[in-house]
């Protein structure tokens, strides 16, 4: 009896228009397992202008059970994410309008993938039409390292006066420093809100991601207070970047990073694979 984990499954990277140019573009792209990427079209219409960009990966790693086991393996996940993104980025670089799918969208075989594409064809076409000509830009807003979220007030509000004990004097100094920090934090928060409005006015859509903390924040100094994605027309990328950076210029304690352009991951809804029959 054949062990199902010895077989390959179909990994879907993205949805794009199934044009001859797209087919030629994917011919030189290699996927996660080194397999050549190719297009599959809906089961009911092989000549459809819609297609999945797919590759084959080992079921031993990407079938449901082993995939769940891999979710706790950070090195494995990082490698998969990088390879997935590399394929999507190559498709975008070819000039194709690309709807990236979620990590590890897997089907048992190409027939099942074709059926899933057929079922969701109208939905994919609508979303791909919306994203065509647009890219994703990230805007991360940081408060300077010496500006921190306000702490609960534990002081009695006393100020330093002649004759105060050392303990009261220390609490008074600490209170004044806390007030200065709170004022700086309010300035940053107000500037971040204004900057978000500026960016939003130049974009088609916005997704507010959770600010990054701990190791997710990377080596960037300061506290991440904003971590948003914007859907921007491709011909407005430079104008968007310049306007956002200009809005942050000269504001004490505020630092802004504009990343991208990327494929519009944050604006591509994440369809689940069809359950096995």
Give a summary of the structure in a few sentences.
With 277 residues, this protein is of the alpha+beta class. It has helices at residues 20-26, 59-62, 64-70, 74-93, 110-119, 121-131, 166-202, 237-248, and strands at 8-16, 38-40, 51-58, 98-107, 134-143, 205-209, 223-233, 254-262.
Give an overview of the whole structure.
This protein is of the alpha+beta class. It has helices at 20-26, 59-62, 64-70, 74-93, 110-119, 121-131, 166-202, 237-248, and strands at 8-16, 38-40, 51-58, 98-107, 134-143, 205-209, 223-233, 254-262. The strands form two sheets. It has a four-stranded antiparallel sheet, sandwiched between helices. Strands 6-7-5-8 form a four-stranded antiparallel sheet, covered by helices on one side. Helix 7 runs antiparallel to helix 8. The longest helix has 37 residues, at 166-202. It is elongated, with a radius of gyration of 25 Å. The protein starts with 7 loop residues before the first strand and ends in a 15-residue tail after the last strand.
Keywords:
single chain, 277 residues, alpha+beta, 4-stranded antiparallel sheet, 8 helices, 39% helix, disordered N terminus
Q: Give the strand order, joined by hyphens, for the main sheet.
A: 2-3-1-4
Question: Uncertain segments of ≥5 residues (pLDDT<50)?
Answer: 1-5, 157-162, 270-277
SS strand fraction = 15-25%
From N to C, what is the helix and strand string?
Answer: EHEEHHHEHHEHEEHE
* Tally of DSSP β-strands: 8
What coarse outline follows from CA principal-axis ratios?
elongated
Helix content: 25-40%
Structure classification: alpha+beta
